[in-house]
Design goal:
By secondary structure, the chain is mostly helical. The protein is built from twelve helices and no strands. Helix 3 packs across helix 9.
Length: 282
């Protein structure tokens, strides 16, 4: 037991599983007791059995899988556009200080802005169809990813660049080196990026949508079917969790060395030292 209270002491996989089951079991027990003792009105907090039944109805009657896939597709489109623009722009901002000083005065405040306040502007600019939804999601994710790319690119050790220049690298090779060395950490941020996408897709799909989990929840709210509302929330959590697992699996397969703990003093991008040769196509 004393091992659990050692600072930064890693725990076994079995212990992690037990703790996860205990935490979820505690929440479910509290939920059950609140509904069983009628502490809150059934209107605001339906009982767990009713939510489970509503989850089954979502699957059999309301095309739960199709709605989840539609939301995934919207997030995926926004994510691809976000990565296609933010990653090269962030590498260039890290490489050329004048470009950073040109873009960052606009990008930095955007990260502090309440993105939901921009929804009416996107409706006015892009209408109420798919372009608005994908554009709004892109806007919600872009500035976060841009900041991550700039930060991780800045962490690339200058000694890697000096080594590359010593080997005869040109400017394009140095840019490729920065990208290769920082990309594993950037890829690790994709899981949080998708969480952000799931946060905003619900809001986007409440506006003139005919498909998606946000539309599904809003349709249930309009008829005051809060069992379906809670079931939809659970479905969103499961869908987002499964995709996080997929991204985590891809990260472990693509960048296995990131699982090896490194001293805190070691630059995060130093793990990409082997990218010096990759930048030359060797």
């Amino acid at each position: 037991m004393s091992e659990l209270f050692r600072i930064r002491k890693e725990v076994s996989r079995q212990t992690r599983l037990i703790l996860a089951v205990a935490s979820w079991g505690f929440l479910l027990a509290v939920w059950f007791l609140l509904t069983h003792w009628r502490v809150l009105p059934a209107f605001s907090l339906p009982d767990p059995a009713g939510v489970v039944a509503a989850l089954v109805r979502l699957w059999s009657e309301y095309d739960l899988l199709g709605n989840v896939i539609k939301s995934w597709w919207r997030i995926g489109q926004a994510f691809l556009w976000c990565a296609a623009i933010a990653i090269p722009l962030g590498v260039l901002m890290s490489s050329f200080r004048w470009l950073h000083d040109l873009v960052n005065p606009v990008a930095a405040p955007m990260r502090s802005m309440p993105i939901t306040a921009f929804l009416p502007a996107f409706i006015a600019l892009l209408g109420m169809d798919e372009a608005m939804k994908v554009g709004f999601l892109w806007f919600g994710m872009f500035f976060y990813l841009l900041a991550v790319v700039v930060e991780e690119a800045n962490r690339v050790d200058n000694s890697l660049l000096e080594t590359a220049y010593t080997l005869g690298a040109r400017q394009r090779h140095a840019l490729a080196l920065i990208f290769h060395a920082s990309f594993p950490a950037i890829f690790g941020s994709f899981r949080i990026l998708y969480d952000i996408g799931w946060t905003y897709v619900i809001l986007a799909e409440m506006v003139n949508a005919r498909k998606g989990v946000g539309y599904m929840i809003e349709a249930a709210r309009k008829v005051l079917d809060f069992e379906r509302v809670y079931a939809g929330i659970i479905a969103i959590g499961v869908a987002a969790f499964l995709f996080r697992l997929l991204l985590g699996f891809l990260e472990r397969r693509l960048f296995p060395w990131r699982r090896v703990s490194r001293p805190a003093s070691e630059p995060a991008a130093a793990a990409g030292a082997g990218s010096v040769k990759a930048a030359h196509g060797e």
